[in-house]
Amino acid sequence: MIESIAQQPMLAALIALVGLGIIFGALLGYAAEKFKVEGDPIVEQIDELLPQTQCGQCGFPGCKPYAESIASGDAINKCPPGGQSTINAIASLLDVPAPELDAEHGEEADLKTVAFIREDECIGCTKCIQACPVDAILGAAKLMHTVIADECTGCDLCVEPCPVDCIDMLPIEHGLKQWHWPAPLKTADLIASDRVHQGDEGRAA
Amino acid sequence: MAFKQITSPHAHAAQNTAQVMRLVLWATVPGLAALTIQFGWGSLINVVLAVVTAVICEAAIIKLRKRPVAFYLRDYSAVVTAVLLGLALPPLAPWWVVVVGSMFSIVIAKQLYGGLGYNPFNPAMVGYVVLLISFPIQMTTWISPLSLLPDGVSHPGIIESVNIVFAGYSPADGVTGATPLDSFKHSSGLVVDQIYQNNPLFSQAMFAGVGWEWVNLGFLAGGIVLLATRIFTWHGPLAMLGAIALMSVIFWDGGSSESPGSALMHLFSGASMMGAFFILTDPVSSAVSNRGRLIYGALIGVLVYIIRAWGNYPDAVAFAVLLANFAAPFIDNYTLPRTYGHTDRRRATEKEEDA
Amino acid sequence: MIKTWVTPGGVHPPENKHQSMTLPIGDLPIPERLLVPLSQHIGAPAVACVKVGEKVLKGQKIADATGPVSVPMHAPTSGSISAIEDRPIAHSSGMLAPCIEITSDGKDTWIDHQGIADFEHSSPQMLIKIIADAGIAGMGGAGFPSAIKLNPGHQRPIDTLIINATECEPYITADDSAIRERAAEIIEGIGILSHILGNPNNILLGIEDNKPEAIAALEPHVADTGISVVSFPTKYPSGGEKQLIYILTGNELASGSLPADAGIVCINIGTTYAIKRAVVNGEPLISRVTTMTGNACGINRNYETLIGTPVSHMLAHSNFNEAACSRLVMGGPMMGFSLTSADVPVVKTTNCILAPSYSEIPDDEPAQPCIRCGMCAEACPASLLPQQLFWYSQAQDHDRLEAHNLFDCIECGACSYVCPSNIPLVQHYRHSKGEILKARDEKVKSDHARERFEFHQQRMEQAERDKEAKRAARREAAEKAKANSATSTGAGSAADIIAAAQARATAKQVNPEQQRAKFERSIAGAEMRVTMAIEKLAEAASNQTDEQTNILNAAVESAKQKLEQAQVRLADHLEKHKELDSEQVK
């Protein structure tokens, strides 16, 4: 029988291919069972990388829903609070090229901010409390409200609903504790700036 | 005085990159001198031609990249690349071979990858390999060493050399000849002793191959100077030479007709010494840690021997270096030094240290 | 000869120590104003306990320690407090921080103080308290409160006391000169430390072999004290705590651990002198030896400097030539930081003021590309790969940086010192460390925010579910009631129906009353709001902007409207019930 198969190249090729297919299929199936990885589902991993401001600028009601959407194929550049660093992190997680931030959803802020309620103007309407995604605003109806600055994510969501516009987004103050060395200037910048320096002040040596 | 926010340290050692590069250039002088004495003016012309081409290309690309030209040219790195390429090319090679190689080294292998410090492959060796594959005839035509020239024939003088290089004159009969590694490779069927007796390249040599042993000694001398001035550490060069020596001893095969040759021949022929001290010590494209450089050097040594003994090319430093360049990041990943206060060395891609 | 170990790496910069050693330790005139920063140490800043205008005596406490890791501050001279406010302090950032300014009265009158003559009979706890109250923080550089280092309760007993007299940085000679002139007192201070620590087995005084005079000055005093003076070859940075411990004991401190975890206490030699003064003489830490050096100064020497002395005062008494000076550095040329103002004061950790000329320390050259030459790796005392750290720093690849042990970098500057490409490596590392710490901090915050968001979501969903459940329950009840009434109509007696109708009627009768009360309440509330809004408007009208007045106006209007609505509703209600009542009467 083997001989007769060997004399029919078509048949031989067919059998060989099918045979190989079965063998490799079995191997792959075995490997998939044997080396199954119970890793973090991708949604959790993406959610880890998002800044958790819950601001909704991406168009989703919170970071987790956006993470779910990314996992099912949405663009990864819709998060202005996270900025480019978050996009890069997600891109490297998903192994895709990192796009620029989508300006449609807002711009990356230079400074982190927290909400601050001008308390003597607050009328106690509780609208901001309902808007706050992380329950960072304290207060009750007809009583003055205040923001717990440490809990505030700076998401902006409370500013819009306030009927008397008494909520400001203030930059977080930086003191000695927060200070750290800035990155050194790039050489190209340094040389250019040196030229400017020498031009306008010279050196008293 | 300006009150500027300047990070420590405020004091700096006097040595700068340009000085390092200049020192490397000075260290090539003994090798270049040996090449010139043994093989005529060809190498010197190669070097000058390669340097001029390289500097022009480097300046043009830096200009294109809108960087300060003078600042980047002053680091001498293009000159070093060009000198090394010039030294590696056969003397009296046509001018366009040198120009193409030098251009390729600087433009493609160096600047297109981001310039000094960013090239993953040794630029001089990339240029060399491109030439070797593209123009095999020109690249394998070597000059006979001084003492093996036929009676009445001498190396062409400087004017004639220039004519040969630029105008395509052909050198006099008997001026060209095989290299020791080449002749050894093509003397199959003879046991080593027979080759050594019959071939003047070996029979008239002190210990390795006529002419070439001097060239290698020259590069060895330059290398020792660089080692002494701590431009690089001993790890890479010693590992490479050690690996070549070890491989030749293991496969010496008692000097039979199958033997790939003695350790001395391999160490002092071809580009062994130049490769060990001037090529694989290029820090940009090599492994970074001392342990990494040991492995990197040994890998080059082994590859050089394998290609010389069983490959198609008589010499192999360029190929070996490029292959090891590929492996350098991989080697780096596993050869981080053990840091003070840690019980074990870590891996470069490790996320969290094991307790 | 005591065995020493050799650290990897290290550099040998020109020492430049002789310039400031030609003269003995000098005194400066008392500056007119002294500026005492409230934070000169690691830990929580002190809190001022004096008021502006108050008179203080020399050595009087002017700021209390807060929390366990903190030290108090004392007045360096007598005078009056002229300000407590933010001023530029000695910090790389050049930022302002709270300081107490004292205007000297020129009398330099000491407060009453008394030391303990025979400390050997005092308990360690008491001595530690004296050291803490004297405001002593490590004077070698970091400024860690000394009392904490000495505090018992370490996990393992202290068997080695190391006195750091290495002074490996170029130019600085503060410790060297102090040893030469005050060896006896320093040894006494070490005796106090030894007593506090329960006489540890080894007391090692580590000193580089470039200070033979200092070693000679110590020798006569150490006999029979159990103190071993260990000299070892000069190499920067042997004076780093980790490096010195390795040199003297051959032990490496595990990454992230403290010397105490290995049974070691390491104290700077200048601190031992301050401890002696505090315990035996009862003097708090109000002055220290500071080296004034550099070619831009005509006089190079060490001064006994009051804490709070402005650097400009020191310069003024040292023939300072500003035009010749390339930069002002507090500390040495390897780890010191450049000053952004000459008004910053000398603090407890200031061992040197360096005013170099342009030829000594020229302006930095622009950085060239890194060629990974590896000279930095050869120089690194912690066996790091600085070139790789630089590479990943540029890319801000935090994972790789941590895998390359960035946080074991002691920022000694040896790598930048040898770098042929003039790359400011240390600044890259400092920046990256800051960024990583910031990222860690943000991670904690974002995890917390996620938790709160999830809780918020859960709460909202729960509320929704509860509402839904209530609605369902009501619906069910209504249906049941319907079914009940249906069955009762079918089978019930007439009496039942009448009873039910009566019950409904009573229920209805209750309702209108309640409703009326509710309407009345809301009217009262609305009235109150109107009056309040009007009051607010009146109050605000004088000093508010038009915009805000408008807003308040609008608020008044809406309050009035609401009041009207409430009144209308009440009127309607009353009207309706009149009809109802009359119907019922009929």
Record keyword descriptors for this entry:
heterotrimer, A: mainly alpha, 3-methyladenine DNA Glycosylase II, Chain A, domain 3, Alpha-Beta Plaits, two-stranded antiparallel sheet, disordered C terminus, B: 355 residues, mainly alpha, 2 domains, two-stranded antiparallel ribbon, 18 helices
Topology, number of strands of chain B: 2
Q: State the end-to-end distance of chain A.
A: 100 Å
Form type of chain B: globular
Order of helices and strands of chain A: HHHHHEHEEEH
How many beta-strand elements of chain A?
4
The strand line-up of the biggest sheet of chain A is 1-4
Low-confidence stretches of chain A: 193-205
Describe this structure in words.
The complex is a heterotrimer of chains A (205), B (355) and C (586). By secondary structure, chain A is mainly α. Chain A is built from 7 helices and 4 strands, in the order H-H-H-H-H-E-H-E-E-E-H. The termini of chain A are far apart. Chain B has 355 residues and is mainly α. Chain B has helices at 17-27, 29-39, 42-64, 69-73, 77-88, 95-110, 123-134, 136-140, 158-167, 180-185, 192-198, 200-203, 212-228, 235-250, 263-267, 272-279, 290-310, 317-334, and strands spanning 142-143, 176-177. In chain B, strands 1-2 form a two-stranded antiparallel ribbon. The termini of chain B are far apart. With 586 residues, chain C is an alpha/beta fold. The chains are: A mainly alpha (205), B mainly alpha (355), C alpha/beta (586). Chains in contact: A-B, A-C, B-C. At the B-C interface, helix 1 of B face strand 16, helix 8, helix 10, helix 11 and helix 12 of C.
